[in-house]
Amino acid sequence: MADEKEILQALREHFGFDGFKGNQQDIISDLLDGRDVFVLMPTGGGKSLCYQLPALMSEGTAIVISPLIALMKNQVDAIRAHCGCEGVAHFLNSSLGKGAVHKVKEDVRSGVTKLLYVAPESLSKLSTVDFLRSVKISFYAIDEAHCISEWGHDFRPEYRKIRQLVDAISPRPVIALTATATPKVQHDIQKNLGITGARVYKSSFNRPNLYYEVRQKTQHVDRDVIRYIKSNPGKSGIIYCLSRRRVEELTKILQLNGIRAKAYHAGMDAATRAANQDDFLTEKVDVIVATIAFGMGIDKPDVRYVIHYDVPKSLEGYYQETGRGGRDGGEGACIAFYSSKDLQKLDKLLQGKTPAEQEIGRQLLLETARYAESAVCRRKILLSYFGEQMAADHCGNCDNCRNPKTRIEAGESLLKVLKACEMLGERYKSEYIVAFLTGSHTDEGHRLGHDALPLFGALHDVEDRLLNTLIQQAVIAGYLTNDMENYGILKLTPMGRHFIAGPESFMIVGPAEIDPEADSDEDTHAPEGADSGLLEMLSDVRRHIAERLNVPPYVVLRDQVLEAMAKIYPTDTEDLANINGVGQAKAKRFGPEFIEVIADYVQRNDIEPPSDIKVRTVGDTGKTRVYIIQGIDRKINLEEIADSKGLEFDELLAELENLVLEGTRLNIDYYLDDILEEDCQQEILDYLRSLEEDDLESAIQELGSEYTEEEIRLMRLKFLSSWSR
What we know:
By secondary structure, the chain is of the alpha/beta class. It has five domains: 4-202, Rossmann fold; 206-338, P-loop containing nucleotide triphosphate hydrolases (Rossmann fold), CATH 3.40.50; 339-516, Orthogonal Bundle (Arc Repressor Mutant, subunit A); 532-604, DNA polymerase, domain 1, CATH 1.10.150.80; 623-721, Arc Repressor Mutant, subunit A (Orthogonal Bundle). Helix content is 49%, strand content 11%.
């Protein structure tokens, strides 16, 4: 059995600490005694020490399996700095040349190297397996072990081969470590690694210093992000985006607005990624804008805010990414921007996967949506998701707790929900339970005769959102459980069965005020605060321009643009061009007439324009836009243009719509002629001409039975572009 004094002495010698945190010492003792160990410890809890110290104390070399090259480099540099020995730790991966690989192998064979970091892809190479068979291995450490599970937020198929590789090399004790895992993922990890008998150590997921907030994502999200960063000058922050393209665009916008920011994503070359990461760690820049490729193992204790520009794919991923804030116990704000359009894009990305993967992905997205739309304590939801119960109903450090919502009695409705689950054999997910109780007829329900059951439609007068909220809070309270093994099927708990036998009061918080259906591309708040007197004058200017050009008024500028102008009083073309839907072309062409009226109105009425942040954006000459315009000029297929820039087709359409609405003329006749007959094009054009306002939704509703949404949007582009000069 490992000696306690010896372990403490080694801790002081190698790391300079006088004591351990949490259950680190027990974990290390078990591993030194040759036991398999499973460690579930939040970011910042000290997972690395749990295998680094026993590796330094053991005979032979510990094999550390890690998913990212950048993570390996950081860990190797850190352990070398502690020990003052270059050869004590190495990594073996594709970034090394032949000479470097030879040096690594020499140090391992000689016994100098105590920790060898490898990626699962490198471990699976025959040459690596043969080499490791020839050396003494102390144990295997599987870092970021959640990558093993398909239910994990960063699933890596290569991780599922680790057990067979370990058996092929030399079976030794295994320590698996992760900062985030639901009970389902925990089981997957242990089963796949063959360590179901391992000693399990779980630390609390609660990080009391982190503040959680969800904000509605609107067209002003860039301005909101900039305002937040500028109100926290000099503080370090991470902004997560889902796509590489968005990372690049947002980084440029932040830089244009005087913010020291750099980008990080897997599409960049390794040297640039490493340099940008080092600049962030050494505080040469304040902000890193990144995809989820950034952050694993980043040991920066003073990250003061983590912003999710796009909704995360899962609550596990969200928890781990937010966990990089406030690791020193200090301030850590976690702000997520949420819109249903982000969810729809993520759902669309699942379509190329297997049915099982799609089902898993959609269940994870559903949990994220429930979190974002909930008015319940954010921390309570997160802890419940990971199987941990929070005693109090309020944490006091999230937006919902700081701005509590009214609680309502829902005991009677809960009883019907629980009885419905029981009546339907506990075989259905929450969506079906909601449909059943609200009386929504489904093919499956009719086929199985569910619409004839006594509880069918029993809550027909309750909104779907409220019922979903009730079910979520029933899960948190322990009356129901989500069976993740079966894609989120609702099952009764003993507590739920007890409630059926003896119903009582059940108070819930209603749905959050955040609107998941709000259109993130429209300024839903524009009319609020608009100067009605100025708005009327601007409408007159627009009407005169439209009459002069013989075009519909909305072709000149849309209503939302006029409303925005009547709020912020732009007095030069640069300010006008920065309003969404204007752009440089229209600002130059129509701007002077509007600006003259605004300047006169402001002076006559002694108005002080609002001192809002003016967001400088990447201009119309941005590389992507230039590429798109040039591609259309060369009559390149639109799908090819989208693919070459890594865009979904609807993203390309949105970019084309912005270009046309800002005054750029695009001729896509060559593409339209391939997909639509001339008489079909004419039918759509005739309808668009009949509209008094630019109403795409009406066009889709009217023409949707004959034409796809993409065809209608493309014809709208042709129609609007015909007015551009």
